[in-house]
Design the sequence.
């Protein structure tokens, strides 16, 4: 397997086999799931071109609805749950580039948004290269 395709609410990432294992869980993980505690709840890895999930110590990870306590092989169509978050495993259509695709449903009900990309526009700043002239208030009204 040369790469893994990860499809998330903010887009698609391609992960090379050299970058695996990937931590899955709350903030600080490679794949961040909404509403999960900080740190990894599981790890996505590969061994001899076979994808597997390994739960972190004490984490509740469900594989096709059954709690797993050790590394478990993942096959086409498998579903892995971390609370309300879900990962769906698919065998890639074009196996020359990637063996697996992972669809991440992070449990946020689609409420994740990317920050806007604002185009560079001219704006007034009140400053220039010229000498600044002081403006004094003439009268105040309460």
Sequence:
């Amino acid at each position: 397997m040369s790469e893994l395709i990860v499809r998330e609410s903010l887009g698609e990432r391609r992960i090379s086999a050299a970058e695996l294992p990937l931590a899955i869980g709350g903030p600080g993980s490679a794949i961040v799931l909404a509403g999960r505690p900080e740190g990894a709840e599981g790890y996505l890895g590969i061994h001899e071109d076979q994808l597997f999930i390994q739960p972190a110590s004490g984490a509740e990870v469900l594989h096709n609805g059954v709690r797993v306590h050790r590394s478990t092989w993942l096959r086409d169509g498998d579903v892995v749950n971390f609370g309300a978050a879900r990962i769906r495993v698919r065998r890639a259509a074009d196996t020359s580039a990637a063996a697996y695709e992972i669809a991440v449903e992070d449990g946020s009900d689609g409420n994740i948004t990317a920050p806007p990309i604002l185009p560079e526009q001219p704006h007034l700043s009140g400053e220039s290269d010229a000498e600044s002239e002081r403006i004094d208030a003439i009268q105040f009204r309460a």
